[in-house]
Specification:
- With about 140 residues, the protein is mainly alpha-helical.
- The chain is built from five helices and no strands.
- It has helices at about 15-30, 35-45, 55-65, 75-85, 105-120.
- Helix 1 (about 15-30) runs parallel beside helix 4.
- The longest helix is centred in the first third of the chain and has 15 residues, at about 15-30.
- The relative contact order is 0.18.
Length: about 140
């Protein structure tokens, strides 16, 4: 059975630029209906727009859990594009239409800004060690 990811708690991923990046990315994951990691990776692999690379299920999982921020925008953009396609969101449209803001930022630009801020921020403190052999253990990580 495919596992559904959950947003990390603040204890797992403290407030800051990395959490803001993950919260934004995770909102697209929710809007897309929480597809499996395999489905996201397969969609990226099948999309000719991304034939220069692929994103592994593990990379996608670590992004959505806040365990990593990819150094390449292309990886983040591929995941965003697939999630937006599944959620029927145009990533190049303004995030807010109407309302109280005149911010013309698109979904893609907003996530890229958060990605840049997350890359520039120091990494969060490591998760508490638990499990066998002192190895860090995460709630959605399969046991070995």
């Amino acid at each position: 059975m495919a596992q559904v990811l959950r947003m990390p708690t603040e204890a797992e991923l403290p407030d800051g630029p990395r959490r803001q990046f993950v919260e934004a990315l995770f909102s697209y994951y929710r809007d897309a209906g929480r597809p499996t990691l395999r489905a996201i990776a397969d969609d990226i692999a099948e999309n000719s727009e991304f034939d220069a690379f692929t994103a592994s299920r593990e990379t996608i999982r670590k992004m959505l859990r806040g365990m990593t921020v990819p150094l390449s925008w292309a990886v983040v953009d591929a995941v965003l594009t697939v999630l937006c396609e599944r959620a029927s969101i145009d990533p190049d449209m303004q995030r807010w239409s109407g309302g109280f803001t005149d911010d013309p930022t698109t979904h893609r630009q907003a996530l890229r800004n958060l990605w840049n801020e997350a890359l520039d921020a120091p990494p969060p403190s490591p998760a508490p060690l638990s499990g066998w052999g002192g190895r860090a253990s995460y709630p959605d990580e399969p046991p070995f």
